[in-house]
Amino acid sequence: MSAFKTVRGMRDFLPEEAKMMKYIEGKARKIAELYGYKEIITPVVESHELLAAKAGEEVRLRMYAFKDLGGRMIALRPEFTPSVARLVATTLRNEPRPFRLFCMGSLYRYDEPQQGRYREFWQSNFELMGSNKPEADAEIIMLTNSLMETVGLKNCVFKLGHVGVLRGILSKEKVDEKTENEVMQLMDKKQYDDALKLVEGAGVSGKCVATLRKLVELKGGRIFEIIEKMKKYVKSYEKAVDAAENLQEILKLVLESGCEIDMTVDAGFSRGLEYYTGMIFEAYVPELDIALGGGGRYDRLIELFGGEPTPAVGIAHGIGRIMMAMQRQKTLKTGEENRVMMIPVKSELKGEALKISQMLRDADIPVEVEVMGRKVTKALEDADRRKIKYAIIVGEKELNEGAVVIRNLMKREQSTVKIEKIIEKLESKS
Ligand code: HAM
């Protein structure tokens, strides 16, 4: 048989990266707890119809979709939002609002593999459902900023927009929904010329094309100036003006919260998923040109799934991309604390070595036992190579006096310590 490798687009995480992924997940879980989001676990497999309903062409075409043995058309989830919306439309439909729900897990998209883009990836996903108020949008932005800060990322920039501006214009111009969605997809891919051509082809007014042309060029960090201009450009489209005002209100709240977020507004910003109805945003760091997270407001999805009308806003953070950003910014020290290698000097002392190891683990100290039958010198070299801090050498002479030798491999010092004093000694970090 030829040597196996991972399937295209899939990857293994070796211990160091696996540890970083779990570290970020731990931080996201902590943020969920601090903001009051309850974790739910939904299936990796859902009905194709549910996942495809409002995914947008980009995601829809890239789903791992297939018939199961019972002939049902199913797919691996490309995102969490439809699953959470399904739950709120069904099982949770009569529960009191708002819902703050959190998910963590793997997602699947048949994307073209490239830097930071895989066919299996992980998200921490937050959904706030039941409120149409700007403070709900502000909360989603703020918790994303909290996550970026707690993992130690610096110079994070949030790009914001509002789909209500473009959709407000297109709907007043009576562009049909299918064309409107196509325009939004092209905008998402920054193919502005193609988007404008499509709009022109849909028989809109000259004023509409001119307005859109100005909007796609309107972006920058002076967020309130940009929004004022946006309002001026779209003044004859009432819904677009409302959308710009809504964005203004959200951003005002974010700033009033005292949260120091670097924000830019992009009037031509659109996202691939079709369900968005309001504010949309993505988070970036200067070292990478791909988004670390993205989300926004979607007020009609739950209703579309047969639930009560439930406005909602949410965000998904790409765990793998956050890890990449941390690697670029060198934010995580991977040094291990207080690990112990337990080395019995000879065979007859193995049982005693296992017993002391267990005592240390009971006190929450990580211990690895020498299992290769190596001599002490070789075992110490191995511990050193693997950056283990302490070696405990279990020798006959010391053991007769109820003691062991503890060697600090970093400082290259050692001392004889009574068994009942080992924990104290290790915790004193000397
Ligand atoms: P999304 O923008 O499709 O939004 O994905 C969110 C994040 O997942 C991206 O910013 C990126 O970090 C990560 N991601 C997406 N695709 C890949 C990939 N192929 N490889 C690696 N990472 C990837 C959503 O999924 C929406 N459900 C977010 C949302 C929640 N909107 C409202 N609520």
The CATH class of the largest domain is Alpha Beta
Bound molecules: histidyl-adenosine monophosphate
User: What is the number of independent domains?
Assistant: 2
What is the radius of gyration computed over CA atoms, rounded to a whole number of angstroms? Answer: 28 Å
The overall average pLDDT, rounded, is 96
| Strand segment tally | 17
Helix/sheet category = alpha+beta
The CATH topology of the largest domain comes to: BirA Bifunctional Protein, domain 2
Largest sheet: 9 strands, mixed
Low-confidence stretches: none
- Note the total helix count: 17
Shape: elongated
Alpha-carbon distance between the two ends: 52 Å
Helix percent band: 40-55%
CATH architectural grouping of the largest domain: 2-Layer Sandwich
User: What fraction strand?
Assistant: 15-25%
Full CATH superfamily name of the largest domain: Bira Bifunctional Protein, Domain 2
Strand order of the largest sheet: 1-5-6-12-11-10-7-9-8
Describe the structure.
The chain has 430 residues and is α+β, with helices and mostly antiparallel strands. The protein is 41% helix and 20% strand. It has 17 helices and 17 strands. It has helices at 15-35, 48-52, 57-60, 81-89, 134-150, 163-172, 177-188, 192-201, 206-216, 223-233, 238-256, 301-304, 319-329, 350-362, 376-385, 396-400, 422-427, and strands at 38-39, 45-47, 65-67, 73-76, 99-108, 120-129, 157-162, 219-220, 262-266, 279-284, 293-297, 312-318, 340-344, 367-369, 390-394, 403-408, 413-418. Strands 1-5-6-12-11-10-7-9-8 form a 9-stranded mixed sheet, sandwiched between helices. Strands 14-13-15-16-17 form a 5-stranded mixed sheet, with helices on both faces. The protein has a 3-stranded antiparallel sheet with strand order 2-4-3. The protein is elongated and about 95 Å long. The model has no long low-confidence stretch (mean pLDDT 96). It binds histidyl-adenosine monophosphate (HAM). Histidyl-adenosine monophosphate (HAM) binds next to strand 6, strand 11, strand 12 and helix 13.
